[in-house]
Amino acid sequence: MAERPLLVLADAQDVAAQAFVMRHHKDGARLLKPSDLSLAGWCHRVGDPAASVAVVDGLALPASMIRGVVTRLSAVAPTQLPHVAEADRGYVASEMTAFLGAWLSALACPVVNRPRVPSLSGPAWCQQQWTKRALDLDVPAVPVRRELRAGSTMPTQHTVPAGCVRFDVIGPTILGDGHPRLRSHARRLADSAGMALLGVYFDADDRDACFVGADPWPDLSDEAIGNALMECLP
Question: For 30, which of 65, 66, 173, 227 is 20 to 30 Å away at the CA?
Fold first, then answer.
């Protein structure tokens, strides 16, 4: 294993995470799956983060050796734990989520993006919340309208219309083509949300374009995004 591994916390079926780990394996990138938390050797001591230990590729890894962690999960889901008895998966998933939240928050190394309760990867904002944050920052935004019937549930996902312009914020780097003002908008949104990794959509590429949506998990299989992420980690 590399001297200072970079851990990518992701679903076992996350194709983008797998591609990133394969491309940067020689640089220490390693996939950390929810099921790995069932391996013996993990440790988190409240008030003593230096004593934390992760188990990666079957090896115990002290926190001091970790270069950084990239989180691509908002929570551990029961479906990600097929090795656990079905009746216990919900409970185990919630316990793993709580453990990861505490463990990630205590790490001294970079965590992209750091947990924000209840999410393991930055704020768990819905489209309305992202839109309000944009407007609070004086970033023009497309109005959001939701129609709910009695007994229906609030939509949890927002679909970005085709033809939108996207900027990816990766640490100090911003990737994407469009008016410089939009780049500034993307930077301010990411900084305001405390996110070092964020995709931001606009409805056009001109200076008066409106914010459409945000993506907390840019495509790590994209070589430019992956390289920019590696460059911003110490």
Answer: 173
